[in-house]
């Protein structure tokens, strides 16, 4: 397992972004050269998940299943004129065929386009408003069979801001830290790569607690990947 830290600049310029996505993908492929290194990538914003998942899938030779914890589905076809935006990464992943199943958990800021895109790509979207009913299902998750494994993408804003206020897009009504732990610890499947994104150091103002919470998530994923 190798931890990488990638930061994407917030720029909206097509050609430059193409190049940037390529650089990120190639970096991930390089760390995967020597098996059995499995990348755990730290953002940066959520735009990095597309080039990382693409690299993992291309390197392993087929799609993965993705467990995506987030307040937002990040499935816009294009956001603010940028098809590689942090809000579009999973649209690019599904279009590319890099994931078979995509389960999104923690959603509470979703538009009609988000739900339409979810249907279009056959995604499984679990919204917070039905979380108590979905809990049992989520605690018995088995993913990655018949594909190249499981990719876990954790946007820190999946957590309620009471637990992690140091993010760019605060959405009340989210998961507790214990909810996230339960989901990750009960997840059955071979986790081949993961990312933790959207921690915003500039907003890490409440006793540095969001950095600590993000670090604990990294530790959990490290244990998961190492099994
Ligand atoms: Mn988010």
Automatic annotation (TrEMBL):
Pathway it works in: Nitrogen metabolism; urea cycle; L-ornithine and urea from L-arginine: step 1/1
Cofactor note: Binds 2 manganese ions per subunit.
Gene3D superfamilies listed in its UniProt record: Ureohydrolase domain (3.40.800.10)
Keywords: Arginine metabolism, Hydrolase, Manganese, Metal-binding
E.C. no: 3.5.3.1
Gene Ontology biological process terms, A to Z: putrescine biosynthetic process from arginine, via agmatine
Needed cofactors: Mn(2+)
Listed InterPro entries: Ureohydrolase, Ureohydrolase_dom_sf, Ureohydrolase_Mn_BS
Molecular function in Gene Ontology: agmatinase activity; arginase activity; metal ion binding
Enzyme class: hydrolase
Binding-site positions, Mn(2+): 46, 70, 72, 74, 155, 157
Catalysed reactions listed for this entry: L-arginine + H2O = urea + L-ornithine
Family: Belongs to the arginase family. Agmatinase subfamily.
Job of this protein: Catalyzes the hydrolysis of L-arginine to urea and L-ornithine. The latter can be utilized in the urea cycle or as a precursor for the synthesis of both polyamines and proline.
Protein known as: Arginase 1, mitochondrial
